[in-house]
Amino acid sequence: MTLETGHRIRNIRKELGVTQTEFAQRLGMKWFRLRDLESGRLKTTEEIAKLINREFGFNYRWILTGEEPREYPLVEREVVATINAASPFIEIYDAGLLSKLSHAYNKCTSDTKNELTEEPIRTVVSMEVYFNNPNIINEVFLRAKGVCESCKQPAPFNRASDNSPYLEVHHILPLNRGGADSSANVMAVCPNCHKKLQFGKPDSD
Length: 205
Fold this sequence. Notes:
Largest sheet: 3 strands, mixed
Helix content: 40-55%
Low-confidence stretches: 73-95
Strand content: 5-15%
Structural class: mainly alpha
Strand order of the largest sheet: 2-1-3
Order of helices and strands: HHHHHEEHHEHEEH
């Protein structure tokens, strides 16, 4: 059973077209732990299977037992939203959906791609919401002094509301993975670096 579970995890990774290092980083683990999971040397726990479900959209029951359906519909998955007290909107991050959309898009022909934009798919989701501490946000923005703490460049523009440098809050270890809402775990970053840190390919050492 452990070996079969490992094979399913490996098949997910290969289908997404990512390396063991990239896949493991998305799960917050070292690459060699993923290697041991794939080979069956390490048992896949329900917690790990649910993490894969949350990140990549594959049914954790299928990962553990092979029980269909292979993929969870979005409405059955946990979708994590962050309400940023420094900006008036909610950002929803569903990495599993994004991974599958990217994979499907790359396989499409140009004619098929044109058809994809005609009618959007809609669904209703339930969300677990994390509220950032406004005092922490203020402390981090003061520390940054209008400069992105990732690329070290000045904020790209100023806010219309108060003319302050526009930077966004990034948690180094995400709140939904146990990260602390503290200044030590928070960076003030420009929008481009924020998206890169969340969804971009990790820089090589």
